[in-house]
Amino acid sequence: MPHNIGNAISLVFKSLMNRRATAVLTVASIAVSAGLLSMVERVRTDTQTSFANTISGTDLIIGARSGDLNLLLYSVFRIGNPTNKIAWDSYEKIGSRPEVDWAIPFSLGDAHRGYRVLATDLGYFDHYRYADRRALEFREGGPFATASDAVIGAEVAERLGYDVGRAIIVSHGLTDTSFLTHDEDPFTITGILARTGTPVDRTVHISLSGMDLIHSSGADRVPAPVEGYEPEEITAFLIGLKSKTSIFALQRYVNELEDEPMTAVIPGVALQQLWGLIRVAEYALFGVSAMVVLASVLGLLATLLVSLNERRREMSVLRSVGARPGHIFALLLSEAAMLAFLGALSGLLLIQLGILAARQFALTEFGIQLSVGLRAFDLYVLAGILGIAVLVSVVPAWRAYRNSLADGLTVRL
């Protein structure tokens, strides 16, 4: 039996080699479609995972009155701009409530060579968590100690070639180019954070007192201490609660405050809203990819059908050496299965090489951590393409079977 199987595989392979140009094009077509389908799913799932890993352990994000998604995007992912600021008194009022365990204030509005500047306090390095409640760690140096100190993310350090002790200038605004730079107040890098795969890597961190210093003038331009500094207003703040059961009560309290209009969002809920908004686009991409797969398999069917008349002499020769009509039927099915298998497998493996080449770019430019390795979905793609190819090849295989019965040992063209 193994000998017969080996002979059958060898026969299928030699038959395909006789039409190698057509076979290579068919394999390439299926490889592209399988790789595209796998890549769409990989990017979708890895994007969701990367976004979900950006913040962990934070129960509420509180900022000026705005949409939930806008607050989430600018406060966590550094995308977009805040609608307004909130008073420090409001931060203290909420942060001092008995159900609150910790609070992290921060201010946005400046940048350094295209990287966002985030002003915060030392509690940021103690309480901020990402991924599965992983704490921030320093690759070099330590947190800021004075108003003129700065802590940079791993990507800022690597892309700009910065080390501890380097002086940097912050610019007003959030773009690469700015017409207003705070040259009179350079910051000295005191620490570089370890890579996290989150927007933290692309952020320059300074103290709240440092932020006020570069925006002050005249007699107010006196460096204030980092610890205990109270600015007049901030952009937003993160809250961690002593008990998860208090989340909804505190959220309702903040949203209904009359002193100052504010919005409190639960990070996980806001993320689900984001996925809901883009789900239509996800389905559209997935549908297009599935249609490309179907088109490539139909191309395989067309190739087999077109070649039937050309191969009637080949079938006659096989009949003359003892092949039965059923063997001819199995040969066509086996050829289609081999082409589909080689094409799908090639596409999946090429996608892995593409991910290896592009994962650093995806991480640095978009903050998406692409994973390497075959997944269950990839195996489903492989099995699905193989099954569909075998199914559609029944038509040309049946025609070859009927031709072999009609022709016998002599070809009738």
Tag the structure with descriptive keywords:
413 residues; 2 domains; two-stranded antiparallel ribbon; 13 helices; 15 strands; disordered N terminus
Describe this structure in words.
It contains 13 helices and 15 strands. The protein has helices spanning 2-17, 20-52, 68-76, 88-95, 123-127, 154-160, 208-214, 247-255, 267-307, 312-320, 325-366, 376-392, 394-407, and strands spanning 60-64, 86-87, 100-112, 115-120, 129-130, 134-135, 138-141, 149-152, 167-168, 171-172, 187-193, 203-207, 233-234, 236-241, 262-265. The protein is 53% helix and 16% strand. The model is unreliable at 1-6 (pLDDT under 50). The chain has 2 domains: 2-51 and 278-407, no CATH class; 60-265, no CATH class. The protein is elongated, with a radius of gyration of 31 Å. With 413 residues, it is an alpha+beta fold. The relative contact order is 0.17.
